[in-house]
Design brief:
Layout: H1 4-14, E1 50-51, H2 53-60, H3 64-73, E2 79-81, E3 84-88, H4 89-98
Antiparallel strand pairs: 1-3, 2-3
Amino acid sequence: MSSPQAARRSHADQVERPERPVSVAPPPLPQPVAQRKDDGEPASARVPMLLTVRDVEAELQLGRTRTYELLRSGSIPVIRVGRAVRVPRDALRRWVDEHTA
């Protein structure tokens, strides 16, 4: 005794299915211009020229409030790009050198 479901399954097993096309890997995409460099090093591996406030916090090992106080007072030089605040890496190093006893 075979059930109607078993009959359907066995019929489906006997149906020939068309062969699937062989997948070919697409050619690699070109790298974005921001990631190119003459020596082949990606942009993510380079040291950024401008630091975020969080980067400055980490470099100076200070808290967020104290870091913003230093930036707001003008003690540490900043560059504003719209609402974004960035600190030039070289300026931060000079500031540390000037304030080191």
